[in-house]
């Protein structure tokens, strides 16, 4: 990997130009982006509008729905419960939900690693019938649990939202608390994430960015979905600075001890012995040949992406308030640039 030696101003300019490949219109929905090295913010900027109707500019304080980046918080919540001695990741689902189909062969580990084989509810035709209903976690689990499995547990990796909804339900059963309250008390409050929430369309959330779709004739407000449907697979909200606090809390073993943190970031193996690139709630891949931890998110009106490079202690996160603008490649390109620049 060839290193480049850019000045701070040059690096900022290059990052600006990477972001503007997807976020160039100041009057369109936009995004917020942050880069940190060794825990210090070296880049933080917002682009576009947080609210088109009110003509409000985006700021780096805006609160976004983070979609599937929620899975990190769900996975860590499960390990908090393991750390407390309340469950084990190798427990079968049937230990907590006795009537769950094949629950004696599907383990919590299978759910965490997307290797359970259970049907992903986002691929079910009947989803449109419940998308705007208020669903309890049990109702959500009942919605998909009797669907035929796609494969036997541990046979393959296949990204799966149902598994994380089921994990959220297990968190509630085992802790005796609502998922929302458990995450707030055990993660948000401990990490000082004061601008992170379980999503709501009813609550007043200061600095909320509004979500948009793009149609052929322009932007429209996002389709409304009940947050009780994605639940523990995709219903949290946060800011770029709160996500940096989350990353620091993980690094500093503030939430989990070192042994449980290692479990999160281990590459696991299928029944065949083949290794796959997912731990518990994070993809474990690489940027420019350097190992990373990454995850994105997509939910009506929003897209999100973050990359962390342990070897260099570099964290790059970006949020978009239009599902027409994905920050995924932009974040990877930003991370690749910062990795190559040793400043």
From TrEMBL:
Its EC number is 3.1.1.103. Pfam families: Beta-lactamase (PF00144). It comes from Chryseobacterium endophyticum. InterPro entries: AmpC-like (IPR050491), Beta-lactam-related (IPR001466), Beta-lactam/transpept-like (IPR012338). It comes from the Bacteria. PANTHER family: BETA-LACTAMASE-RELATED DOMAIN-CONTAINING PROTEIN (PTHR46825:SF9), D-ALANYL-D-ALANINE-CARBOXYPEPTIDASE/ENDOPEPTIDASE AMPH (PTHR46825). One of its GO terms (molecular function) is hydrolase activity. The keyword Nuclease does not apply. Keywords: Hydrolase. This is Serine hydrolase domain-containing protein. Residues 16-322 form the Beta-lactamase-related domain.
């Amino acid at each position: 990997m060839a290193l480049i030696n850019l000045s701070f101003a040059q690096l900022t300019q290059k990052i600006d130009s990477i972001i503007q490949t997807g976020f160039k219109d100041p009057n369109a929905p936009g995004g917020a982006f942050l880069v940190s090295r060794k825990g210090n913010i070296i880049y933080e900027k917002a682009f576009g509008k947080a609210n088109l109707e009110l003509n409000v500019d985006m700021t780096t304080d805006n609160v976004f729905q983070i979609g599937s980046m929620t899975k990190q918080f769900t996975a860590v919540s499960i390990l908090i419960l393991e750390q407390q001695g309340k469950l084990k990741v190798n427990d079968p689902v049937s230990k907590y939900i006795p009537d769950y189909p094949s629950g004696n062969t599907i383990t919590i580990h299978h759910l965490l690693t997307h290797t359970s084989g259970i049907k992903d509810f986002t691929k079910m035709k009947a989803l449109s019938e419940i998308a705007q209903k208020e669903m309890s976690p049990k109702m959500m689990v009942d919605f998909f649990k009797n669907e035929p499995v796609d494969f036997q547990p541990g046979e393959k990796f296949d990204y799966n939202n149902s598994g994380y909804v089921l994990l959220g339900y297990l968190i509630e059963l085992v802790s005796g608390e609502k998922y929302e309250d458990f995450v707030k008390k055990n993660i948000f409050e401990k990490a000082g994430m004061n601008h992170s929430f379980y999503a709501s369309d009813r609550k007043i959330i200061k600095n909320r960015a509004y979500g948009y779709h793009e149609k052929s004739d322009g932007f429209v407000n996002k389709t409304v979905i009940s947050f009780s449907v994605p639940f523990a697979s995709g219903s949290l909200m946060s800011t770029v600075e709160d996500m940096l606090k989350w990353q620091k809390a993980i690094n500093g073993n503030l939430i989990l001890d070192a042994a449980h943190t290692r479990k999160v970031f281990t590459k696991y193996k299928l029944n065949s012995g083949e290794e796959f690139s997912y731990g518990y709630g994070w993809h474990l891949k690489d940027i420019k040949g350097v190992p990373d931890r990454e995850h994105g998110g997509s939910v009506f009106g929003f897209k999100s992406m973050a990359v962390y490079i342990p070897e260099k202690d570099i964290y790059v996160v970006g949020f978009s308030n239009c599902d027409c603008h994905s920050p995924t490649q932009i974040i990877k390109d930003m991370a690749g640039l910062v990795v190559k620049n040793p400043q």
